[in-house]
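Researcher: I'm preparing a figure for a lab meeting and need a structural model of a single chain. I don't have an experimental structure, so a prediction will have to do for now. The sequence is pasted below. Please return the structure as tokens so I can convert it later.
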Amino acid sequence: MLDFLKFENEVVLASQSPRRKELLHFLFSDFSVRPADIDESIPTGVDPFSAAQMIAEKKADAINSSGLVIACDTVVIINGEILGKPKDESDARHMLEKLSGAVHDVVSGVALRYKGRKRSFSQRTSVTFCEMTDGDISAYLATGEPFDKAGAYGIQGYGSLFVEKIDGDFFNVVGLPLARLRTEILSLIKEAEDVK
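Model: Understood. Here is the structure written out token by token.
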């Protein structure tokens, strides 16, 4: 854990995602959760693979803290189309039908701020779904799991039953690319401390 580095400044997670909160406990035992109240809509013409990083940067900028701020946003992309959180059951079904038997990308954008310094990056993972029958989709929707997740599925839950293969960081698909995040935090802290 990064606590072993005696990091005593405030750490803020700018996200209300319970999954990100669980994952961040691998790095820090103590942090506060302050969801950023921003407009998360993506402007027309923005490259889908840049969208998550752009939103993460907006989230980080919205948090007032002199400590380490960690903000993240995750999008699911298939054939150049961003799949956000479904609006309703019909929307979730439509998304799952698109993902069935296909390869899609999950991109998490992460923005960090510490002592006036900023850093952001994005991480991409490719996910292959098996073919899903109408019955599979109906049964999955009945679990309630798809409705608060980008792309209408959670790889750490029942959604794992439809994942044939992943290429990249599993935790990125869950919502926080831990290994890259650790590396970037260590580098940012060192950079900020070196300018003292």
